[in-house]
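Summary for the steering committee. The consortium agreed at its last meeting that each partner would contribute one worked example illustrating the joint modelling workflow. Our contribution is presented below. We chose a case with several input lines so that the handling of multiple components could be demonstrated. No manual editing was applied between input and output; the record is shown as generated.
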Amino acid sequence: MNLIVSTISQGFIWSIMAIGLFITFRILDFPDMTVEGSFPLGAVTAVSLIQQGHSTLLALFMAFVFGCLAGFATAFLYAKLNVPILLAGILTMTAMYSINLRILGKANMSLTKSNNIFNEFGLDKLPTNFNGIILGVIVITIIIFLLIIFLNTEKGQAVIATGDNETMAASLGINTTVMKFIGLMVSNGIVALTGGLIAQQNGFADVNMGIGVIVIGLSAIIIGEVIYPDVPLSIRLITIVIGSIVYRLILMIVLQLGFNTNDLKLISAIILALCLALPTIREQFLKTMRNGVKTK
Amino acid sequence: MKHTRRLYITLVALTAFLVFAFFYTGHTDAKKQNAIPKVGILQLMSHPALDQINKGINDTLKKHGYINGKNIKIEFQNAQNDQSNLRTISKQFVQDNVDVAVGIATPSVQSLKNATSKTPIVMGAVTDPEGAGIISNNKKPGGNITGVSDQAPLKAQLNLMKQVIPNLKTIGIIYTSSDASATSQMKKMKKLASQQGIKVEISSINSVNDIQQVASSLIEKSQTIYVPTDNTVASGMKLLTSIAAKQNKAVFPAATTMVKDGGLATVGLSQYELGEKTGEHVVRILQGKEKTATTPVTFMQKGHLILNEKMAKKLNIQFSNSLIKEAQKKGQIIK
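What follows is the complete predicted structure of the assembly.
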């Protein structure tokens, strides 16, 4: 029982990162590798600030700001200097490694003090794991709320239009370059914020903690889409949260079944591949069914 | 809209489950006694050195009459170097109510520490427990954590270098910048060497791919190369020693496994022995003879001298008779 609750709590927290990734991956329609650098960036920023005695809220805010800067770097390479987006993200991600080491001063740092955002505001009095769930739900609600408001403004609609059809958007007088900057910065800001949260939950920051983050995020987005296809944009943000929880539950079951953890990376890649292929398989299946009916 | 409704149903179900769990967990917090003792071992990733530690732990438990599945349950998990796995497995150990949790390598212990402040945790090889913020005092941990440090006997290693390389004035150190324990060893070695008037050149790498270039320029500047206990450099040891050998220079690694891969010599700790010491902590805790709060961290004072004669011949280096005798007696000579 506790294990399931713990897994759900993990799903909630990691879904925040997936929502950030959604902005670039689905709204702007390109995969952004920067997240593997901005995620640890948020973690090291938050942990260093808390260790220096700053408040946890300030630490999270600065994690967001630094994440935005990482997004800015990628956007500059991509939108201003015309570096292909995949490469631009990889460049920022690589550079981030050195920057993260500089910020943290070493490769790995524990939070020796017990004050983290999960224990502040009396959340530590809740049963185990519920502080993560409550905090996760609060942060998710705030972020989804702000995102929906933003996407319904003129600027937000312009970002969506840029992702849908850049040529068309440009012909309508939208400055698509600016839109790419906004999208990448907000996206990486949210990812870094999640990094700051997870570092506080785990009790340490490590410069290697960004490895594989993009797969976790994409899995959440795609599982959400597979379970709930064809829903309006604002609802899709909620499906990501469910997707993230389902992904964690699948991994938990895999661990519980006693699979060798050496194979965990392979299994998570297979889960993602299956979910990506599922719409195509479903279509093929329906087509053959229909044809079958016709020939009769 | 059908799918939107399905989503709402899921959300309601999820909320209902969480509300149920919220009140349910309040009642089951009282821990049940295990029928047989349970030990959870969390290993950071697959690596020959870490695998040796795990083997040492298991053999020691067996030696003390603990047979897995019969009178003890050993739950082994490998986190595959993934942060979220570390956390999930740590939580799982606490849920499973293990009697002792063992963390192999620093991040595993940090993760276990974060999951529980009650269950006894034994460190299986953490280089710098104080520096990593795991415990506040090596002599008197005070909490639920104690164990074994794999801090290499640096002084002995420096003396060995001085004995083998005459007129030693500059040492080059190569280490991985993302490896916290390698970094701390590098700093300690640098301090030791400069106290004895030896200059130290330092270069860091990010991955095995950097070794070729970084090592080539480092070797130009130094008489010999020293490598801390560093998993990444260890993977590229063959490459590093062959680059050094071209310049007729020797590589002194901190770990014994690296001598087998072409290092010249070291006074090293055996990973297996570290595992044995870790296992002994576990056994004493299980028997109720040891309390984590008052048991000092075990530091291995004595190392084994390991010499690589094949490499020495290649570099035209002759080990002194006393070294060879010592290695024959307590250490190992690789021919």
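The mean pLDDT of chain A is 88. Residues 1-207 of chain A form one domain.
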